[in-house]
Amino acid sequence: MSVIRSRADAPDTVSVRPVRRLEPAALAGVMTRDIVLFKRYWKATTFSSIVQPTIYLLAFGLGFGSLVHNVGHVKYVEYVATGVVATAVLFSSAFPGMFNTFIRWQFQRTYDALLAAPVDVEELVTAEILWISIRSGVYGLAPLVVGLAFGLSLMPGMLLVPLIGFVTGFGFAAFGVLIAAVAKTIDNFNYVTSAVLTPMFLVAGTFFPISTLPSALRTIAQVNPLYHCVALVRDVSLGTFATADFVHAAVLVVFALLMWRLAIWRLQSRLID
Amino acid sequence: MLDLVHEERASIELRGVVKRYGEIVAVDGLDLVVRPGICFGLLGPNGAGKSTTMRMLTAQTLADAGTIHVLGFTLPGESKRARMAMGVVPQQDNLDVELTCRQILDVFARLYRVPRAQRPAAVERALEIANLKPRADTIVRELSGGMRRRLLVARGLIHRPRLVLLDEPTVGLDPQVRQELWSLIDGLRADGVTVLMSTHYIEEAERLADTVAVMSGGRIIAQGTPAQLVSAHAGREVLEVYGPPAQLAELEALATSRGWRHRRSGPAVALLAAEQLNGEAPAGVRRPANLEDAFVALTGQEIE
User: Fold this and answer.
1) Which of A163, A233, B177, B221 has its CA 20 to 30 A from that of B241?
2) For residue B76, is the peptide bond before it cis, meaning its omega torsion is within 30 degrees of 0?
3) Does the model's ipTM exceed the 0.85 cut?
4) Minimal CA separation from A68 to chain B, in Å
C-alpha cells in the first residue's frame, strides 16, 4: 500500500462552502450510481418496456377489441394504448421505489455509507425518486410508440406525456420508498402489490371506463391517482383536453408532493436513530 | 509545522453524551477529546458503545443528552459541514456491489464535492492507496475480502479529509492485509491527519494509537498512552504461574487475600505488577506487562 501525500497541500475549500438543503451536488452524486447502472442495463429495460404494452395491446386491444370496438367515441385500441401509459409509469416507479430502497438500505447497507458522506436523508430520497421518475416519464412513452403501430395517430399533445409520466412516477416512486421505509421484511411488499397496486392498476380506467362501475367503486377509483394519470394522458394524446384535466393534473401534483414528504419523514426516522 | 492557533482546537469533543435504546444505555455520559494530528484509539470489548459513538460523530445516531463538536462544527445541526471535512471507514462493508472500484470512487468524489477537474486524479490516487489499480474496472462483487476492505478505506480518503474515523478497521482480516492497513493508518498520522479508530484488538491499539481510551459500559474508564496505561494498571512485570486447576484456584484465593492484582490467563494465573511482590512471589515466568494485562485489569474482560 502506498503512502498518502500530505494533506497540507490539499485546498481547504470544504469548510467555506455554503451548505444548503437539497444541494445539486449531493443529488447528482447519488444519481451517478443510477446512471452508471442504467448504462449497463438499458437494453433489458427498454426491451421490457416495449414488450409489455405490446402484450397488453395484443391481448386487450385485439382480443378484447373484437368484442368492444369503441369506448364512447374512442376506438378501443386507442383507449388501451393511452391507458397503459399509466400502467407502465406505475410499474416502473412503485417497484423500483420499493425494492431499490429496501435492498440498498437493508441488504447492501449503501444508505449508511451515503449518509456518512455529506448527504442528508432528504437529498438521498429525493435523488432516488427523481431518477426513477425521469425514467418513468421517458418509458411512459413506450405504449404510445407501440400504439402508433396499432393505429394510434400522432398528436402534438403527446409531447406532454413524459411530463405527466414524470409527475405520476414521482408520486409512485415516493410511495414505494414510503412502503420500503415502513416494511419490516421484503416479503411485506406482497401485501402492497396484491392489495394496493393490482387493484389500483385495474380500477383506473385503463381497460374499461370507471363510469361502468358501481358507485362505491367509482368513488374509490376517483381517489386513485392512477385514474387521474390515465384520464390526463388520454385527453392530451387524443386531443380531447378539457377543464377537468386541470383537476387531474392538480391531483397528481398534490399526490407527488405528499408522498415525497411522507417518504422522507418515514425513512429519516428509520435511518437516523 | 502545525499552525498552533488554528490547530489547538480539539478535532473531536464530546461532553456528557448519553444514548439510550429503550432500557439499554449504550453511551453513558461520555467525555471524549481528540486533539488534532494524533491517532486516538478507542479500545473496548464488544458492546462497550464504540460503534454508537462512531455513528454519533456523523449524526447518523443522535445523542439523547450532551454536546458533540467535530472539527469545530456543532452536531447534529452542522453535521453536514463536519461530514464534508472528514472521512469515514465503517466496520461493516457497505460498498455498492454492482459498481466497479473506479465507479464507486467517482461517486464518492462527487459526494465529497471534489471539483470536477480534480476528480480523475483523486480517483487514481485512491486506487493507488487501495493498491487496486489493476482491478480498477472490476465489479466489487468479484473482489476478495481484503481488496474490498482496502477499497472501503480508500473511499473514505478520496477527498483528503483532515479527520478520519475508522470503526474496527481490520476486523476479520488476515494478518497480511492487517499489516498493510496498519502501515496505511500510520502513514495518515504521519501526514498530520487526525485519526479516531475504534478497535477491540489490543495489538492494533498498542501499535498505532498515540492515545488509547479504554471504553466500557458506555464511558471511558481509563485514558493515556499505551505505556502509561500499562504501568498504571498492570505495573512493569507480570508473573505467570502455571499449574493444575486446584493449585491455580488456591493461588487466586491467596492473591485476593493479599490484595495482589491478578487475572486468569488461559492455563495460568497472571499476577500483575509482579515487581512489587518482593520475596513472596511464587515460582513462575516473568514477562513485561502489556496493554492486554491493563485492559483485562480495567474491564474485567478477556479479549481475543
Assistant:
1) B221
2) yes
3) yes
4) 47
